[in-house]
Amino acid sequence: MSAPVEGLELSRCSSCQARFLPTDGPCPRCGSTESQPYGIPPLGKVLCATELVHPAAGWESPHRLAFAEFPESVRVLVVIEGDLPAVGSAVTARRDGEIYRARSEPALPS
Q: Which residues are CB-neighbours of 82 under 8 A, at least 6 positions away?
């Protein structure tokens, strides 16, 4: 069993070094089943965001989604908890089962 990873957990393929989510299953690039978990900081930047007022069954309305970029150019679709963030704003993400959730972070002083 591997040690827990801080931040967002990804997998890095031992053969081709590809990074991927989710962390289970073979490498999507080369098919290798040998991978190592590693973490990246959970603080990312919103690339785009939307709010669904009529989401799919089982989701609360409004359902807020954002596509965010994290360190090492990792991009993840996240469910936003709280107000819809603006493009360019900071979010902190966490994995909740098979879903990635994020909350807006206060703006840093310039």
A: 64, 103, 104
